[in-house]
Design goal:
alpha+beta; three-stranded mixed β-sheet; 28% strand; 10 strands; single chain; 268 residues
Length: 268
């Protein structure tokens, strides 16, 4: 049903009919013509609803408010020179709406504005309570995308360049003596006994090395029942690696190469 994402549209799409889905970021009524900033996870594109072009979609556009979820069908056009927007990737283009369909409306006042939110004016507790709204913000989406790109880059470097294999290790395991208390999970089938959540996959890394798995890595979930610190939560993620027949210098070189590769690939 969807032909493009908002930020994908460019010169090659001029004068073509496209179908987009997204949220109403802003709606502006200029006295006879309504402009809608349509937003999805990739960015924003301007939609133009003109009653002279299509009266039915214009009546729908009159009902739209911020954060309505809509489907739009229309033709990609170039914006007039006086209305170009250099702040966004699609600032040279707009879509004249042939059809607007409301998929989900907003029945209550939003607890905060998604577009242009000043975090200092909104309590963190409020943003966390309405996390599904907070995650729509550009800053939060970029955080998720950055994390995805970093992990993707790690996997590419270790597997394609360094002959590592990714192995998933168990979460429900036995308690091992490490730096903090374990989180315990009672066993339903074995009364009076329990599992421990791993503080790190240390036991399994050792098993893999002894069994002949030469190079192992894992984006590992770790759990430590300890007081909060600035750099650690009770549940966190870390990159775990184990290598056989490696000198200290070789291990340092590999990790330095990985860090350089991440920064070069992600941030150039």
């Amino acid at each position: 049903m969807r032909t493009h994402y908002c930020n994908q549209l460019g010169t090659i799409d001029l004068d073509t009919i496209v179908t987009l889905f997204g949220w109403v970021d802003r709606r502006r009524d200029h006295g006879g013509v309504i402009f809608i900033d349509l937003r999805d996870h990739t960015g924003i594109i301007q939609i133009v609803s003109d009653p002279k072009h299509d009266s039915l979609s214009y009546k729908t556009a009159e009902r739209l408010r911020n954060e309505y979820v809509i489907k739009i069908i229309g033709r990609v056009s170039r914006r007039p020179s006086e209305s170009l927007n250099s702040k966004i990737k699609t600032g040279e283009f707009e879509i004249y709406a042939d059809s607007i369909e409301i998929l989900n409306g907003v029945t209550k006042q939003l607890p905060f504005s998604i577009s242009g939110l000043d975090e200092e004016l909104i309590k963190e507790e409020t943003r966390l309570k309405y996390r599904y709204l907070d995650l729509r913000r550009e800053k939060m989406l970029k955080n998720l995308q950055l994390r995805h790109k970093v992990i993707k880059t790690i996997r590419h470097y270790l597997e394609d360049n360094q002959n590592f294999m990714e192995v998933e290790t168990p979460i429900l395991t036995r308690s091992t003596p490490e730096g903090a208390r374990d989180y315990l999970v009672p066993s339903r089938v074995s009364s009076g006994q329990w599992y421990a959540l791993p503080q790190s996959p240390q036991l399994f890394k050792q098993m893999l090395m002894v069994s002949g798995c030469d190079r192992y890595y894992q984006i590992a979930r770790c759990f430590r029942d300890e007081d909060l610190r600035a750099d650690r939560q009770p549940e966190f993620t870390q990159l775990d690696m184990e290598m056989s027949f490696m000198s200290e210098e070789e291990i340092l070189d590999l990790n330095e190469g990985l860090i350089c590769h991440i920064f070069k690939t992600i941030k150039n």
